[in-house]
Amino acid sequence: MKLLSKAHFLDYSLVSGSGNECCDDIAEAIATTTEPRWFACLNPHSHVIAQGDPAFSAALHATDWLVPDGAGVVLASRFLGCPVHERITGSDIFYGLHERLNRKGRGSIFFLGSTDEVLEDIRQRMAVDYPNLRLAGTFSPPYKAEFSSTELDTMIDAINTAKPDVLWVGMTAPRQEKWIHQNRHRLQVKFIGAIGAVFDFYTGRVKRSHPVFQKLGLEWLPRLLQEPRRLWRRMFVSAPLFVAEVVKWKIKD
What we know:
By secondary structure, the protein is of the alpha/beta class. It has one domain (8-202): 3-Layer(aba) Sandwich (Rossmann fold), CATH 3.40.50. It has twelve helices and eight strands. The chain has helices spanning 19-32, 44-51, 54-61, 71-79, 90-104, 116-129, 149-162, 175-183, 198-203, 211-215, 220-226, 228-252, and strands at residues 6-9, 12-15, 37-42, 65-68, 108-113, 134-139, 166-170, 191-194. The chain is globular.
């Protein structure tokens, strides 16, 4: 199997191959791995947040697959002379991996995060969209900044009892990445994905931007109009800080 290419971007090792190549690589790992491996997304906002959050930075650096989720990352990589092939989103990995596992007729999935209502919608959709996959279980954790040791034990026991191949974690960044990084060695799974808003995208509670906006690198614009309170900081604070950091790296080189 072709080795998935990666690029040194800022101080991260970033997947530079295509989304299809990344999904193939993950599917191959699921078939052969004995230890949990995991992926997360890097975008301008997460890069800026990680600079002030050592635990988040450590988590991103510990991923097996860190994908360029954001037109800003793709453009910045080209500016720095370490171009990545294309933007890869959490949705790309979610759908691509499910399609591969469903086609092979094997694989079990667990969803951790969001509300019981969202998880029930996911359960119903999965049965229709991916009939050859086993939905091993779902768990809606308490909505709080920190989990107690008892709450962590309950979550981890639920996952390990269900024995899934794939664990999707949707707690929003950076909480989900830090949770995975801190607990992955306790999890008896083959692959873990931090996919944030994909839970809501998949159930239709939040609409992804039209493909035209995605291709133009403007997916953020319709989403900003949908969720201005949640996303304004990404666009008007993190984006300029990210640009400044990229320019500093260019000058340094």
